[in-house]
Each structure stands twice: as structure tokens, then as C-alpha cells.
Specification:
single chain; mainly alpha; 78% helix; 0% strand; COG3_N
Length: 495
């Protein structure tokens, strides 16, 4: 490659090294003039005289060239100018890129600054998040602690209510206006039971034994009020219907209101109390004892009211049917059956559960009937009468009445069976006695063997009653034995 200096040196010797002929110089001049007068191409813009200026400047510059050195300098200048014009868009683009580079540098600096700021913000956010998380955890722990404390306080408060009830219950029981018939008495009993049950299950609490003793004392006081109310009510009712001293009351249809009406009117309030007592009787001995005492008091008052009246009524029935044993047994059993049903129904107006005391009352009343009828039964000698009594007791009483009523007449059925057993035993005894004395030890009298004279006399009597002549009537025509049947053993024995 040639250096610039070598090129310039060769160009300086261009005229010597490549001398032009005259003809060549003339051609050159023609070309120069032709080039100077060459029109502007149509595709180039001509606004503002740019092309004209360029052409004019080139013409003026060529006119000023005299030597080869000037020409070389002019060519270099033109080349530089052409290169400059050709590279102008690139230089502008480079300039624009430089501006963009500067702007990008500024943007990078701003981005780095923003990143630094974001990093600081991230650090601060993490710090705030950590502090917030710690605060949230502390608040959550405080909330849990608060919930635990609230639950603990509620638990303590709910448990303390059983102990604080002691004073309230004592105040209620000590109030003169508070009684068994008050609306708050049954809820008070329920609350007492709850307090006693809670205290018994938590004897490890401080002073729980003392509170348990006090609660039981209050329960005993409340149950004593119930017993006093029930006993006083029953006694007052009994005294209001008892006959005057020396008077005898007989149970009859007209006396139903006297013996049962007033008791039934007093029953609803007592039954409400007894129902609560019966529900608790299986869980606490105090309630069981109270129920037993109330039943015993009820039975005692009913026995006091009914014993003399039942005796009087049975005596009256005995007097009315003194000559007819079957009517006496039937009337006595009907009377006692009605009494047992009425007493059983009245008992369940006061109580809801059966009890041995009721059974004892009904047994005492039924055995009164037994004591009246048994002497009558064991002194009957007639076998047919005893058989009728057995039929009445077994069929009419046990099968038709007792079996239909169930528990209402269970005790009455037991007594009737005993009386039936006595009647059956009496039948056996009388049958054995009859066989022993009248059959096995039979000795005929002369009149017992007077046949056929005995039949003739009987035929004459029948003919006389029929209006026939006894002397001419045949005894065979009077007694038609063609359709007769053998009598049963019972009729033969009784006859």
C-alpha cells in the first residue's frame, strides 16, 4: 500500500510522468466545458438553488486551478467533501446514537438510583414486615390470652354461681311469704339439686364440704315444707269430711262427694309436688323418704276416713242379706270392688307411681270384706249354695271383673281367690261329710222301703190334685216315666 506522502509525490510529478499531447489537452478542455455546462439530473431536487450553487461553486473552483498541486488539493478537498457528504447520515446517526447513549447512560444511572432506592425500600419493607409480623404475633397471642382469660373467667363465674346460690336460697327459704305453693318453689328445688350434685362432684374445691352440708340442710328444710304442706292439706281435708263423733257414715252413691270430691279438689297442687319428688326419688334418699312419708300420710288419712265407713257399710249389707248367702257375697264383692276402684283412681290423682302403701290400704279394706264373708262361707252346709258361691267368685268376680280391670283390682282379686279357696275347701269338707254320714253310714227306715205302696199313695195325691178319681186312676198313667232322665249327683245328694 502506498502512503499518502508517496501518493502526493507521484501526483506532483504527474505532468512530467504523464505529459498530455495537444490533442489530449483539447479533449480535456472540451470535457471540462461540457461538464461545466451539463444539466442537473431530473431526479435531483432543485429547491432553493442548491444544485445551481454546487455547480457554480465547482465551476468557480475549476477556473481557479492552475497547477497540478492545486488540482490535487482540489481533488482531495472534493473527495473529503464527498466523503463528508456520504458519511453525513452516518455521522448524524452516530451523533444520534451518542445522544441515545448519553440518555441511556442517564437512564441507567437513574435505574441504578431507583434500584438502590428499591433496595432501601425492600430493606425497610422487610424491617416493617418483621415488626408488623412481630406485632401481629404479639396481638394474636394477646387475643389468645384474652380468650383464655375470658373463658377462665366465665368458667370460674359459672362455677361460682353454684356457691353464690347458697345465700339466695337461704334468703328465699327464710322469707315468710315463700311457701310450697309459690311459683318459684319447684325451680328452687331443681337449683338445690344442681348445686348439691356439682358440689359432690367437686369436693376438692375449697370449702366445698361446708357448702355441701349447707345445701343439704336447705334441701331438708325445703322437703320439710313439702311434707308439712301435704300432711296438713290431707288432714284438713279429712277433718272436713269426717262424720261427727258418734255418727256413722255409710259409703253409698250419695256419699261419693263427701269421701272423694273434696280430696280430688285438693289433689292437683299436691300431685304437682309429688311428681317432682317421684322424679328425684331414685337419685336421692331424701326424696325417697319424703315420698314414702307422703304416701304413708295419705294412706293413714284415707284409712282413718274409710275404715269405720266400710265396716258400717258391710254390716248394713250383711243385715240386708242375712238370709241369702249368695246375695250377700255378690253385694259385698260389688261394694268392695267399687271401693277399690275409687281408691285406686283417687290415689293416682295425688301420685303418679304405684306404692306398697296403696297396696296395704287396699288389703286392709279387702280383708275387712274377707273377715265378714269367711264366717258366712264356712258355716254353709248346703252344697248347692257353696257351688253357687264358687261360681259367683270365680266367674262373675275374677273372670268378668278382676281380669278386665288389671291393677285396679289386683288386691281385691287376691282376697277373692282366698275366699274362693275357702268355699272350695268347704265344699270338699261337706261332700266328704255327706258321703261319710248319709251314704256310707245310711240305714234305711221302714218307710224308705215301702214300695210300691209309696208310689200308689203318691199317684193318688197327684190324681186328686188333677181332679181325677184316685180309686179308678192307674198309678202308671199318672207317672209318665218314659221321658225321665237320671238326676245329677248334686241334685240327688241335696234332695
Amino acid at each position: 500500500m502506498f502512503t499518502t506522502a508517496a501518493v502526493r509525490e507521484r501526483l506532483s510529478r504527474w505532468d512530467t510522468l504523464a505529459a498530455l499531447s495537444d490533442r489530449q489537452k483539447e479533449c480535456f478542455l472540451e470535457l471540462s466545458s461540457t461538464a461545466a455546462n451539463r444539466p442537473v439530473p431530473e431526479h435531483l431536487p432543485t429547491e432553493d438553488g442548491v444544485v445551481a450553487d454546487v455547480s457554480g461553486s465547482l465551476s468557480s473552483q475549476l477556473d481557479s486551478i492552475q497547477t497540478s498541486q492545486q488540482f490535487m488539493a482540489w481533488c482531495a478537498e472534493v473527495e473529503a467533501q464527498a466523503e463528508s457528504e456520504q458519511d453525513k447520515c452516518y455521522r448524524e446517526y452516530i451523533s444520534q446514537l451518542s445522544q441515545y447513549r448519553c440518555q441511556c447512560g442517564e437512564m441507567l444511572e437513574e435505574a441504578e438510583s431507583a434500584l438502590v432506592t428499591l433496595a432501601n425500600m425492600r430493606e425497610r419493607h422487610q424491617f416493617v414486615s418483621q415488626r408488623t409480623g412481630a406485632l401481629h404475633g404479639a396481638c394474636q397471642q394477646l387475643m389468645e390470652d384474652q380468650t383464655k382469660l375470658v373463658n377462665l373467667a366465665e368458667s370460674i363465674s359459672s362455677k361460682l354461681t353454684y356457691f353464690t346460690e347458697l345465700d339466695r336460697i337461704g334468703t328465699r327459704l327464710g322469707s315468710p311469704a315463700f311457701s310450697v305453693t309459690s311459683d318459684g318453689f319447684l325451680p328452687l328445688l331443681s337449683r338445690l339439686d344442681e348445686c348439691i350434685s356439682f358440689t359432690e362432684q367437686n369436693l376438692h374445691y375449697k370449702e366445698s364440704q361446708v357448702y355441701l352440708t349447707r345445701f343439704r340442710q336447705y334441701l331438708s328444710r325445703a322437703l320439710a315444707l313439702v311434707k308439712q304442706h301435704v300432711v296438713s292439706t290431707l288432714r284438713l281435708t279429712t277433718s272436713s269430711v269426717l262424720p261427727k263423733p258418734g255418727a256413722v257414715a255409710v259409703l253409698s252413691e250419695n256419699s261419693y262427694a263427701q269421701f272423694y270430691g273434696k280430696f280430688r279438689s285438693s289433689a292437683p297442687k299436691i300431685k304437682a309436688l309429688m311428681k317432682e319428688i317421684e322424679l328425684r326419688a331414685d337419685t336421692a334418699a331424701e326424696y325417697k323418704n319424703l315420698l314414702h312419708d307422703c304416701c304413708h300420710s295419705y294412706v293413714g288419712q284415707r284409712g282413718l276416713l274409710l275404715t269405720s265407713s266400710v265396716h258400717s257399710s258391710l254390716a248394713q249389707i250383711t243385715q240386708q242379706h242375712s238370709t241369702d248367702s249368695t246375695a250377700l257375697v255378690r253385694a259385698g264383692c260389688d261394694f268392695m270392688c267399687r271401693v277399690c276402684q275409687d281408691e285406686y283412681q283417687l290415689y293416682f290423682h295425688f301420685f303418679s307411681v304405684d306404692s306398697p302403701e296403696l297396696k296395704g290400704l287396699l288389703e286392709s279394706l279387702c280383708y275387712t270384706l274377707y273377715d265378714v264373708l269367711r264366717p258366712v262361707v264356712i258355716h254353709i252346709n248346703h252344697l248347692e249354695t257353696l257351688a253357687d258361691l264358687c261360681s259367683i267368685l270365680k266367674v262373675e268376680m275374677l273372670e268378668e271383673i278382676v281380669s278386665q280391670k288389671g291393677q285396679e283390682l289386683a288386691v281385691f282379686g287376691t282376697v277373692v281367690r282366698q275366699l274362693l279357696g275357702d268355699a272350695q275347701q268347704r265344699i270338699v269338707f261337706r261332700a266328704q261329710r255327706y258321703i261319710q254320714t248319709d251314704i256310707r253310714g245310711y240305714s234305711p227306715a221302714p218307710g224308705d222301703l215301702a214300695y210300691p205302696d209309696k208310689l200308689v199313695v203318691a199317684g193318688q195325691v197327684v190324681a186328686t190334685e188333677a181332679g181325677l178319681d184316685p180309686d179308678t186312676t192307674d198309678s202308671d198313667s199318672v207317672f209318665d216315666t218314659s221321658g225321665t232322665e237320671v238326676c245329677s249327683l248334686r241334685h240327688c245328694v241335696n234332695d
